[in-house]
Here is the input.
Amino acid sequence: MIGGDLHHPAVGAALTTAADLLGMEVVFVGGLDEDEFAFERVLGDLPGVGEGITMPRADSFCHRLLAGAPASTEDAANDPSYSDAPVRTALGITSYVGVPIHAHDGRVVGTLCGIDRGRVPVSPESLNILRTLAGVVEAHLGDMTARVVVRRTPSGWRVGQDSHDDLTSAMVLADLLAEDLGTPSRPPRADEELSEVDRLQIAVAQLEHALAARVVVEQAIGVLAERQRLSPRAAFERLRKAARSRGKKVHDLARMVIASASDPAVPLPPELAGRR
Here is the structure.
């Protein structure tokens, strides 16, 4: 089955975006092993579907998908790939869409899917966005108690792993998603003139950008926590306060903090520069 923190805010954001994209009754992350399928994270409401519910793998639509069936159907009862799946009659499913979720070693460990009792077509563009959202979920598989930080060692500063307050990670991501990052590579914000698919593509790009920026911010938190003997949450609050008081983006100041770990000449605000 899938490991990692499937209730991380980034996974929730991916599921919410998938629900907006597909317009289906339920979107979910399903986990599979050789024998069993499980609903591991569910958004929406449909009788018989809930987190922790399991069934034989061969009974699920996801098993058919991974065996080579089409990625979507809007008429499962008459689709030869899905018509005889026991889950179809058990849940009354008419429409299904799914994409695989891979572990870091490339193994397929689950699926990101949508199901509905009515007919809901899925466009190729929507399917491509769903695959991108599956990549967001993939980024949160594995041991999510291990966070990237930078530590001082006898031979200098080194990137490594440390236990990290997951609430801090959630706070960092929420802050970045709420902030106008304003970098050239970030797409413009959605407006009323954009189509629904265009709007969702921008939302996915913004989420991916925030996920990438979070790695930098968490590394800076590691430097500040070690340098000033702070908890990760206190280090984040100090970094955020310093950035806002000087009109800088949190992730821009975070890059300077990381650079200062190997180059003391990098200029930093006094409250971030030295040990306290």
In short: The chain has a mean pLDDT of 81. DSSP finds nine helices and eight strands in the chain. The radius of gyration is 22 Å. Residues 196-228 form the longest helix (33 residues).
